[in-house]
């Protein structure tokens, strides 16, 4: 579907065939991102990999993440952090056992705490609101929520450039204010890391910021990294974790509507893991029903209902239609997941459908694209999926899920994540 938003041509691809055209057949032409106010003002002038235009900086940064930060060996080396965070999360839920909890709050806290532990060793938050130079953990969480919101807003100035300077909706003002807060925080984190590098004998990188700083000093880098680019690269690693808690929240929401599925998943866990153990990362391959629940959640509720926009670098013809250079392309994963040509009873939550079909989530199969596909596919896939599997499996394994007294499954709203904030009783089992 070709449209015009203001003065900008836009294409929305809503079928797996068209998604394949843009993300695979013509991936090289659509490998860039449009420049948006969010990228400019809230992401260090598009230095955060997500918004970076296709080119030498993006290629170098992506290589850095894939080879140095998200490679399997490095991710394994951070497993102890994930285990420790998971234990703290489970203990805090045990303490609330029998009381209604808003599960989303806990998941968000867990994912953010795990992320900041891996990225920056988690010690940069003020303990109380009195220490004003740094945000408290809660304030930082709020900053990230605002960043996610502002990154996804429809900012008129992005589509009608001559209106940009008026900032009619006030978003740019908010982005600039938020940027100031993040910048203060990043400066502090970088200074502390640099100081440790200089003073510690036999320095060994402990977290992702250390790895990034070490890499930035490599004299052979094709693009020398500026301090803003380094901050941009730190920024995205922490903030993309919100996808993880959102996915988990939506999955929990759907399960609560279908107690039969909770029973089936816990039967699998009891049989494979046993009642006296927690689920570890090595167990995932033995839990096909859990995997099917995750895929079905992503099919109906992809965290990015429209994939991050792509941008045409040159004129081209796609499936017989001419697409002009400068066109923005959106892939509509929400409608692809509900297309009755590919899915029986598409509105129904039926994880079993994935037990019969061999469909992966890595972007090879265009009917299911929660992590995108092609050159700009999510580089955090391995980490994101580990966190989701581990948290969902252990929540199901360790707790009985119940709705608060008097609430019926059919009263749960599943249309958006905002409505997915529900209370449930987690009873230590
Ligand atoms: C449930 C978890 C996650 C989901 C569903 C998810 C989903 C996505 C999607 C849909 C895209 C756009 C892909 C495209 O344009 O084709 C993306 C891009 C990206 N994701 Fe993720 N993501 C998740 C977790 C993470 C994590 C944990 C990180 C990093 C710590 C991360 C980092 C990124 C980055 C940097 C990009 C931009 C890549 C580029 O433009 O080159 N994601 N993600």
From TrEMBL:
Record flagged with keyword Oxidoreductase: yes
InterPro entries for the chain: Cyt_P450, Cyt_P450_CS, Cyt_P450_E_grp-I, Cyt_P450_sf
Heme recorded as keyword: yes
GO molecular function, one term: monooxygenase activity
Entry superkingdom: Eukaryota
Binding site for heme: 378
Keywords, sorted A to Z: Heme, Iron, Metal-binding, Monooxygenase, Oxidoreductase
Gene3D superfamilies in UniProt: Cytochrome P450 (1.10.630.10)
Cofactor section: heme
Protein family membership: Belongs to the cytochrome P450 family.
Name this polypeptide is given: DH200=94 genomic scaffold, scaffold_840
Protein's organism: Coffea canephora (Robusta coffee)
